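Late entry, written up from scratch paper. The run itself happened at the end of the previous shift, but nothing got recorded in the book at the time, so transcribing now.
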Amino acid sequence: MRRTLISLACLVAASWAWADEAPAPLAERTAESKSSENESAVQPFWSLRPLVRPPVPAVKAADRVRTPIDAFLLARLEAEDMTFSPKADKRALLRRVTYDLIGLPPTPEDVKAFLADRAPDAYEKIVDRLLASPRYGERWARHWMDIVHFAETHGHDEDKPRENAWPYRDYLIRSFNEDKPYARFVQEQVAGDALYPDEASATIALGLLAAGPWDQSSQMGIQDGVSDKAIAQVIDRDDMIATVMSAFCSATVHCARCHNHKFDPFTQADYYSLQAVFAGVDRADRQFDADPAVRKRRLELAERRRLIESLDAQRLSQDAALTAEVAALQREFVQKRDVWKALTPVAVASANGATSKSQADGSVVFSGTRPERDTYTLTLESDLPEITAIQLEVLRDVNLPFNGPGRQDNGNLHLSEVRLSAAPAAGGEAAPLAIASASADFNQDGWTVAHAIDGDPATAWGIFPKVGESHTAVFVLREPLKSSGPVRLTVVLEQLHGGGHLIGRPRVSVTAASQPSAAAPVPVSVVAAMAVEPSSRTPQQQVELSRYLLNSKLKRDLAALPTPQTVYAATRDFKVDGNFKPPTKPRAVHVLRRGDINQPQAEAAPGALSCVAGVEARFAIADPSDEAARRAALARWLVDPNNVLAWRSIVNRVWHYHFGRGICDTPNDLGKMGGQPSHVELLDWLAVEFRDGNDGHSGGSLKRLHRLMVTSAAYKQSSQSDAERTKVDADNRLLWRMNRTRLDAECIRDSMLSIGGKLDLTMGGPSVKQFVQTPGIHITPNVDYQSFDVDSPGNFRRSIYRFLFRTLPDPFMESMDCPDASQLAPVRAQSVTALQALSMLNNRFLVRQSEHTAARLMKQSTEPPEQVRLLFQLALCRDPVADEADRWNAYAAKHGVANACRMMFNTSEFLFVN
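Output as recorded:
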């Protein structure tokens, strides 16, 4: 049976093979190769020569010219005694341009309307409609995600998910749909926060710099100051350089890390100057505000924080307004009593003999025995006349495993139950306190703090994986505890979960606030300073009190702002996570002899490539500590009109996606180890046309560039091969016909959803996890694509909204050549393998979509011949011819309509675009 399946797979795979004849080498009789051979030592390489708009050549077949593109191509063809192939039929052309621009098949209604439209501009109207479709942005954003190796996990050994990477994907979709000027598009992704500080989208755009892999183990696990950590940071910046310079300049600058580039004029000094540009940022979750007014207010509060941090006695003595503000805050503070007061236990007990030691801050550190279950009883006294809530802090401690706050081997804790009771301090029976609600600053998945008050010993509050940090839980009382004198509180903490998940260092605080919220208790020194008359305070007491009151107000002001949104992006301001800490200023970067971190040479100044004439290679940064200014300088360098690499790079990329191959067939390398351009003058003409605009159009419009290419006669050619022309140009480098291309993985998947009537066109939002993630604690996530419900609504979203793993890709998408997101993918492979055929025949998703398609056909018609005709229209944009109809009707009658749909999805005509 296994041998039969493999044989069948090989037969189906063979049916996908290209219809063209075996390739023969193109005669090397081109102007480009001659100029390359005769290139002198002083003449710059073709990609570094100044950009000049070449004249549009005159051609014999002037009637075939629809755009200047055609004239350049025909001039080369006519030199080889060739011309364009005949025009493709309207159905093939509509299918081609629809997949190219929006990545979906045209509907039967689209085909019918286009065939019926006899207007001379019927095709141009189709192009304009497709470019205006929101589906266009989804299609071209996916191309860009390949270019910058975007994914939503870190990669490497742990491959931790990035839950906030998706806003960058949505930014790309919006940018393409809005036809954002290309220069602006580039600048936002390198330095949007610096150049456009009032626009949230410009901050989201920095997701580009964080799109690639990130070595979590090295960045978080290695301490600063050791060479391994410095190496990890160099490698991280290297990925940023490779992404930016490959995407925007098609330059392999990252090859100059250990020595000057062996082939292109990129020096080690250039490389480390680019390292210096990114020396002040890391990859992490970055918060931003969509509302400019909120952003402005948050920036004001950030400036306020800096003022508070730098506050000293001299500033206080000289700033009367600040002194008055502090005095007012103290009066307000005393009146509101909106404060947590830490209570020092008067008695501590452990049911299983754990030892305890009281600390100066009111906490208790437990050590010793670690039983499967235990009960801690803390007895505390409070003199507050009213208590509305009780706060439990579980504090980190260097003596605990992984710094705690639990005593399990990995620092975790599971708190099974919290019980509260109170009695007069003078004596009397304790009465239980009813808890109205519980909240915590962090909850382990499936182990929320609510589980600590639900009475179920099998559930608990847990904090993994946020170990090594302090955590806070607040229990709001159903009725305030009121007393005319001191009260004695009993807080019982019970751990029944097992596995040594014991608390290591708890602290209990109380508040009388009408709306309690988690907050740190007032330090003892601040309480002491408040008790002293202002005139009697020492300068140190006044500074400490002022900082506390000003910080408390700052926290309230920040809490009053709307919750900021988050994107995984380049940032210099993020929470410390293990040994991963934000840089206080750009790190020093030195040229490294042979790339060795232990052999630093001269310090590198921020800059870019010295070989690009007419653009300053080293950046004048007024304030060396201003890292954003470095990226802003690079962003301006990238889009400078004289940056010939940038403008050649983007038009070559767009050409590649429309014609199946770039004018230079290595889109990420326009250097000497890359391909030779087939039409260098055409490439220059396109670059100048795109950069400068023409005929009243401003430069930088990608939609205009698309329109220019897809309305050309060259694009509209048939893809039919020809034996005689193949002898001259087997690779079709001269574009005497249109290249035949295979649908990429996303187009295959989305097409099946569209044809089956199941495609959900909802745009944007968090990515859909089209897999089952096994619960539990894993260093590397454990995901199962096979078990995901094929009829889950999330499975009907367009493919661009899939959650993208680096090391755990979707097996079906991977088999259809969806690229490895750990690598830059300027060109996708187009392989034909038995594994693809097996996937297309047996994958659960494909089988189910075949069933949905069959259900749609049977709903539209009860007649089998009509069902087959509708299937052809939906999948191939045409009716079957007579003998096809007979064979497909017979197959459907014998094997069922669903199997006929499955076979249709396996045909070459469906999988390839002519």
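Residues 1-41 have pLDDT under 50 and may be disordered.
(Scratch paper discarded after transcription.)
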